[in-house]
Amino acid sequence: MCFSPESRAHKGNAMAYQTLIVEREDHFAVVTLNRPPANALNRALVEELKQALDELERDASVNAIIITGAGDRIFCGGADLGEGFSGEDLENFVKFGQGVSRQIEQFPKPVIAALNGHATGGGCEIALACHLRIMKETARLGQTESNLGIIPGFGGTQRLPRLIGRTRAMEYLLLGTQIPAPEALALGLVNRLSKEGETLNDAKALASQLAKRAPIATRLILRTVDEGLNTNIDEGLAIERKAFVRVVQTEDALEGIQAFFQKREPEFKGK
Predict the structure, then answer these.
(1) Contact at 8 Å (CB) between 78 and 178?
(2) pLDDT of 202 over the 70 cut
(3) What is the DSSP letter of 153?
(4) What is the mean pLDDT of residues 190-213?
(5) How far is residue 232 from each of residues 158, 164, 166, 219, 238, measured CA to CA in Å?
(6) Could you say which of 47, 48, 55, 145 is catalytic?
(7) Domains of the chain in sequence order
(8) Which stretches of 10-143 are assigned E, i.e. beta strand?
């Protein structure tokens, strides 16, 4: 199977999608997984998610991204069992899906998961790859694959232990536990909880705030944290040092320092 389908042209430079809705607002974008009722992952959705990420990375007017799900019950219920495991190219599909989740994790602009409903299986894996997570207070998330006699395939066995520690992650992975929102918050799996109907609005407020930050500093923080967590402390400090030397020489750094002394809000330009 080919994982680089041809782009489908839309008016302007935007692309048309069959399984996603991509909207731009106030220097951020909202990507909605749109396969109701469960927004289940199939090959088309995963491929289109990569296309959307590629498009939004190139778009200089977009400084942050929200990923959410259509409806108000399920963010993403995981793989479409009716077609997710069919065909002879399964390993390549899993590798491709891992690459997309890694692309989210390494994205040079903040990515917020707006968990407006349950996020299980592959849906949980997408959420865990995001930099920040806002979750409806009645929702649940979890790597529930073992309930089906399988295991996570898009990074769940690797990210969950890194986020909450090996011991707790082992329990949730082995038992296929769905974690309620308050417990997810206590574990540090999510940043904030939202009231019913307010998850996307809360995510938009955060995205708008992030979009006003200095783009180069934001990008370097995202990269430095990601690279540093995958090495030892000394190498991590070296990565930070190089990034610091680079960022202090930017026009944005000068603007930020001048604004501080002039007691005004800085106007960052990404230069």
Answers:
(1) no
(2) yes
(3) -
(4) 96
(5) 18, 19, 18, 21, 10
(6) 145
(7) 20-211 (3.90.226.10), 215-261 (1.10.12.10)
(8) 20-25, 28-33, 64-69, 74-76, 111-115, 118-120, 132-136, 140-142
Each residue's pLDDT tens digit, 82-126: 775 666 688 888 999 999 999 999 999 999 999 999 999 999 999
Helix, coil or strand: residue 193:
strand
> What pairs with residue 33 in β-bridges?
20, 69
Q: Say whether 55 is catalytic.
A: no
pLDDT tens-digit series, residues 132-185: 999 999 999 999 999 999 999 999 999 999 999 999 999 999 999 999 999 999
Q: Are 164 and 185 in contact (CB under 8 A)?
A: no
User: DSSP label at 63?
Assistant: -
| 3-state SS record for 1-46 | CCCCCCCCECCCCCECCCCEEEEEECCEEEEEECCCCCCCECHHHH
Q: Are 77 and 118 a contacting pair, CB within 8 Å?
A: yes
Q: Which comes out higher in pLDDT, residue 81 or 186?
A: 186
Identify the three-state secondary structure at position 53.
Answer: helix
145 a catalytic residue? yes
Residue of 47, 48, 55, 125 marked active site: 125
- Residue 81's pLDDT band, with cuts at 50, 70 and 90, is confident
Pull the structure tokens for residue 86. Answer: 């069919």
Confidence (pTM): 0.90
**Residue position matching structure tokens 């232990």:** 161
